[in-house]
Amino acid sequence: MKWLVALILVAGLLLAGCPQPSEPTVPEPTAVETPTPPPELYDKTWISPGKVEVGNFYPGARAEYMISIHNGSDEPAEFSVSYRVTDNTTEGYEPAPPEAEGWVTIEDPAPVLAAKATREVLIVLEMPGDAEAPPKWEFWIAAKDVTQTGMVQTELACRWLVVMK
Fold this sequence. Notes:
This protein is mostly beta strands.
């Protein structure tokens, strides 16, 4: 009887050390922190990101992305955020179809930013279910400080690269 109890204990210990079949574990998503711009960018006006890639898009789909706009001026500034036809396209991409401008919604097209302030603006691309587009197409979202004066005025743009399913 002692041998039987000892044998059961040893077998239990051996089995406890063996890998047991289990359900596969799903890794937890990790939070991605938005990097803080270096101090030398606080005095510059910028937008981020410079490029948004939308993959596996299809008629009836919706994509949303926040762009950040920073006012590097010492004075408050009003910006104009708008859809923009590309001046040139990324290699392998075509300009967006003309009706694509109607597929883009800009949450706040005229944000006013305090001096040295940054604001996020939601951009939504929603393609109607019956629409057609090239396999790979591009448009831009432009941000311009409308309080600029002078002959030369800067407009910043974020490329949106769309790949259809």
